[in-house]
Write the C-alpha cells for this entry.
Amino acid sequence: MQKANRTNTVLTKLAVVGDLLMLQLAFLVISLGILTLFPAAFALQRVLPDAISQERPKLLRRFLGEFRQTMKQYWLPGFGLWTGGLMLAFGISFWAYASGPVRIFALAILIPLTGMILGLYLSGLAILPQAEPTATMKELFRSANLFLLRRPLPVAGGVVLLLTWFALASQVPTLFVVGSGLVPALTAYWLSRPPREKTSEDVSI
C-alpha cells in the first residue's frame, strides 16, 4: 500500500512538472510579440493554481482562453509596463557604467524604484487568480498595493529571488527559456499562499 501511494505521489508530481513546462512553452511562444508579453503572463498566473492542484483538465485550452480575455483587457497597460521596464533597465545600465557623483545619486533612485515596481508586479500576480475576470487595471493596482502593504517582507524576498534568477539567466540563457514565465508566476503563487498558522507542535515548552 505504501509503495502504491509513493508511486501515485511521484506520478502526480511528474504530471505537475509536465503541465508547468507545457504552459511555459505556450507562454514563451505567445509572448514573443511585445504587446502579448504581459497578457500572456497574466493568463499563465490565472491557470497556474489549477496546474499545481491538478483539479481541472485541458489546461492549454484554458490558458489560451484566459489569454484572449487578458489580451482584450490589459494589452495597453501591458505595453506601458513593457516600455517602463525597458526604460528602467536602460537607465540602470547607463548609470552603472557612468562616472561621477551623479551616477551614485541616479542609481540610489533607480534601484529602489525598480525593486518597488517589481514588488507591485509580483503582488499583482499574487492576487490575480482571485480577482474578478472583469477587474480593471486600476482595481488590480489597488489590490496589489494593499497586498504589498500587508506582506512587505515576503514580497521583498520574492523580489530578491526574481532578481537573482534574472542575474543567473543572463549568464545561462537556457534558464530564460525554461523559466521566463514560470519563475515570476511560481514566486507570486508562493506569495499568495496564506501563512501557516502555528500549532501546539510548533510551540516549545
